[in-house]
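Tutorial sheet, problem 5. The two components below are modelled jointly, 506 residues in total.
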Amino acid sequence: MDSIAELRAGLGGAMDNGDPTMSMADRLCHACVALLDVDGAAISLMLEGSSQGTFGSSDGLSRDLDEFQFTFGEGPCMDALRQGGPVFAEDLADAAETRWPAYVGSALGLGIGALFALPISLANSYVGALDLYRRAPGPLLGNSLLGGLMAADLAALPLLDMISAEAELATSGKDEPAWTQLASLARVEVYQATGMVMAQLGVGPADALARLRAHAFAEGLTASKVAWSIVGRELSLEPDNGRTDPGGRHS
Amino acid sequence: MSTDREHEITRAFVSIANSMADGTDVVDLLSGLTSDCARLLDIASAGLLLADGHGVLHVLAASSERTRDLEIFQLQRDEGPCLDCFHTGQQVSVDDLSQETDRWPQFVAAATAAGFAAVHALPMRLRGTTLGALNLFGDTAGALEADDLDLAQALAHVASIALVTDKATSDQGTINKQLQAALTSRVAIEQAKGVLAQLGRLDMDQAFAVLRRYARDHNARLSDVAHQLVSRTLAAEQLLDRSMTRPSPEIRSKA
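Model answer (structure tokens):
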């Protein structure tokens, strides 16, 4: 029980106050390597209409492995998104592993024995995956699996910043711990406001949530406060060259 | 009065039982459970926490906004009777919160500020696993009648069975999947309410009524309609046009 709390604190802490020269996504990947039974980690973003590709990683090798998936157009990360669930390849050298012939060849060439892809969801849609790599084959077990799932939850935050049109403002939202930020995005008024923003802007749920969060950062408000203003019809987000009108429209 | 209440209690059980038979939405079912509790028992409101596949709790239903806020507060601060109930799998009954400031300093302050004086947290258990907790909040200090507690526990128990009875379930993995699906549905339903509220200039309760009526009229699950709406495979106008041209559900159901 204690080690689960430690995992939670360790992963969340890496996002909140790790090496400031690294991006939040890179820090999370480093924390995965430090805390879980894996040798590498990378986060990829795959959102319709947004950039696709590797977005954070623990080292160059993990980044290369992740990018191979986009080069070959196949891999566990893409399958995890399509299926909306984790995809595990416990032994890449096993002859029975035939899912991604081109990708597996390259991964084996780089000395990787096992890989695990965990989907990352935002506002109910899958937008990316956390890919974990290990040199030795074998399953991802116990707390390493649980920690991987927690890290995939946390990875939603940097992905949201990335999707947001005002990603550069994201740095101003750092005073709230990562787990608290996630909890506040899971509030019912945020879901309702996300639906209203979807209708206002004609965008999907992940984009709508990113816009809501960007507006909160820009105004120095919590996501919940902004959501209340939207639900209460005091605020309406408008399409404006893909950016949120800083003042919003007050009716 | 007491006959009315018995009638209401019977209706509550029947409605849960029916939901098992016709595959009613879990979110619908649990929202109904919290409002049934608030109406039938000597409490002010009720809330319901459910754990996802990683054992992380979420607020799935609440009979009032202040209850929802207080449940979320407990999850955020990781402190409170509802969490203790979930972690131990045992009832946690507090007749007078003001006596418990040492036990839950942050929760007692927040609950008092929200106007609550008593809380009773009941585990939702199934086959040795605690799925979540049903939480009853009272405005005044004082014990809840043993009968009332039993009734609430029985409702929670039947709801637990209904939660996972959708398909034959024997393993924890399947139960987790169903709970995860319930949590996912709730997000889609709230988003769908937002879409309808915006396009139809409705408040959230009206938007929910439109969503529910469309689902019932089409014999579809609430969550399926919500998912279609959010993924834009179903146009919001289809639901809104209907709602404007049709009489209200109260009139129709009596006709």
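Marking note: Confidence is low (pLDDT under 50) at residues 245-255 of chain B. Full credit if you identified this.
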